[in-house]
Amino acid sequence: RGELPMEVADLEDEIAGLETRLSKFNDEISEFEEQIQNNKNKIKDAQALTKKYEGQLTNVKNNREFDALNKEVEIQGLEIMAAEKRIGEWKRSIELKKELIESSTKDLDGRKLDLANKKKELDNIVAETEKEESTLMKGRDKAEKKIEERLLIAYNRIRGSVKNGI
C-alpha cells in the first residue's frame, strides 16, 4: 500500500478544510449583504429626516433655528454618503469573496477527483493483496502464540507509536 493510505487521508482532510473555508466565505457574504441592507435602511431613514428638516425650514422663526435645521440636513447628507461608501466597500468585498469561492470550488473539485482516483487505486491494491495479507496475518497469529506476552506487548506498543506502523 505504501504511502497511498496516508495520501488518501491527507486529501480527505484537505477537502474538509476547503469545504469549511467555502462555508465561512458564504457566511461572510451573507453578513456583508445584511450590512448592505442595514445601510440601505439607514439611507432611507436619513432621506426621510432630510425631507422633514427641509419642510421645517419653511416655518423657521429665527436664525438659530434655521442654522440648526441646516446643520441637521447637512449631517443627514453626510450619513447618506457614509452609508453609500460602506455599501460600496461591502459590495467589493462580496465580489472578492465570490472570486475566492470560485477558485476554492475549482480546487475542491480537483481534490475530489484526485481523492476518487486514489481511493480507486487503493481499493485495487487492497483487492490484489488481500489473499497475501490474510496469509501473512495467519502466520503472524501463529508467531504471536510462540512469543512471550511482555515482549509482544512491548512490540505492539512500539509499533503503534511510529508513524507508518513499520
Give the topology.
Layout lengths: L3 H54 L5 H84 L2 H13 L5
Defining key terms:
166 residues, mainly alpha, 3 helices, 91% helix, rod-shaped
Write up what this structure looks like.
This protein is mostly helical and about 170 residues long. The protein is about 90% helix and about 0% strand. It contains 3 helices and no strands. The chain has helices at about 5-55, 65-145, 150-160. α1 packs antiparallel against α2. The chain is rod-shaped and about 110 Å long. The mean pLDDT is about 90.
| Global geometry | rod-shaped
Strand count: 0
Q: What's the average pLDDT?
A: 90
Instruction: Flag low-confidence runs.
Output: none
The helicity comes to: over 70%
What order do the helices and strands follow?
Answer: HHH
Largest sheet descriptor: none
Percent of sequence in beta strands: under 5%
Computed CA radius of gyration, to the nearest angstrom? 34 Å
The helix tally amounts to 3
Please state the structural category: mainly alpha
Q: Please give the alpha-carbon distance between the first and last residues.
A: 12 Å
